Amino acid sequence: MQVAQRPADLIGQTDLLRLRSLSELTGCDIYVKLESQNPGGSIKDRAALQMIKDGFDRGELKPGMTVVEGTAGNTGIGLALVARSFGLNMLAVMPNDQTKEKERMITLHGAELKTVPPVPFRDENHFYHTARRLAESRDDCWWANQFENTSNARAHYLNTGPEIWQQTQGKIDILVSVAGTGGTIAGNSMYLKEQNPDIQVWLTDPDGSGIYSYLKTGEYVSKGGSMTEGIGIMRLVANFRQAQIDAAVNLPDQDLLTISRYVRDHDGLVLGSSSALNVAGALCAAALHGPGKTIVTFACDLGERSASKLYNPEYLQQRDLSLDLEPMESMLARYAQKHTEVWYRHG
């Protein structure tokens, strides 16, 4: 009988789900990897486990120490869960504008939570800098540093990418992913392109992020903002440097409303905001390169973690987002007619 000895042992080997509704609509096979199946409820469990395992292997971590990390939520939850499995404590530093659902999960896992105002990265009170200072101020603390710690990308190179290759039996044409730290898109793109260099890797970027602009022009420029959390960035970090990206698209929050309701109503899957952005990116790739393609993306976390934003009518109205949703056929046609600009590495 195979029995896990700790929650961290259950991380990975998540299922691949074919989105029947969008697959039939586009003539492609569109799959989502259900990362909500991880014990901490998100894809960030993978990076958390690899960072802590590698920290022990390098002699940086010892039982009883405190892991410190700045997080938009999911990495903090993953680290809190893994820390307990390895006899560690956890201190998460989080902007106070993230969903309360994530705050609660961090503390429920026994971690200490410090919230700070959401400020630009250049401000020393930014959650990243605050976490670094706290870790450096005590000898018994270890800073996970998910943005620059390439164990993040390594988790996906060693595990997620091989899982996708095995689950699709090597029949994958396009991988679609959002990026925050860049670990997911970097590790998966490195592994999958080693297996087949012709696999196309698409990045989907929300408003308020500068990654699309960086890929297109070499400069980080953003417009507007987004309800997504932990997605997008305005600086180049070590994990993202490793990503092998062929195409990128910037999509507005309004498209996330449309895709999330459509998938919920037709497939019974409740997507979080970053997952909805991934699926919208997959739809765009299908519209431009289908039919007949196999496209894989990620359901990054539990949809309930977006309940207070993506599924909250009052919040959506405050952001001037319409609940009068565009028909999915219209959205698909808009993508197919190239009304949404796509950047391609080679022309």
Structure, explained:
- It catalyses: O-acetyl-L-serine + hydrogen sulfide = L-cysteine + acetate.
- The structure is a single chain.
- With 347 residues, this protein is α/β, with parallel strands linked by helices.
- The N and C termini lie far apart (54 Å).
- The radius of gyration is 19 Å and the shape is globular.
- The chain has helices at residues 20-26, 44-57, 74-85, 100-108, 127-136, 151-167, 183-195, 211-217, 238-241, 253-267, 273-289, 313-318, 328-336, and strands spanning 16-18, 29-34, 66-70, 89-95, 112-116, 141-143, 174-177, 200-206, 247-251, 294-299, 342-344.
- The chain folds into two domains: 7-37 and 160-344, Rossmann fold; 43-143, Rossmann fold.
- The strands form two sheets. Strands 1-2-10-7-8-9-11 form a seven-stranded mixed beta sheet, sandwiched between helices. A four-stranded parallel beta sheet has the order 5-4-3-6, sandwiched between helices.
- Helices cover 40% and strands 16% of the residues.
Averaged pLDDT: 95
Number of spatially distinct domains: 2
Which blocks of ≥5 consecutive residues have pLDDT under 50? none
Look at the helices and sheets and give the structural class: alpha/beta
Roughly how many Å apart are the termini? 54 Å
Helices, by number, come to 13
What is the correct CATH architecture of the largest domain? 3-Layer(aba) Sandwich
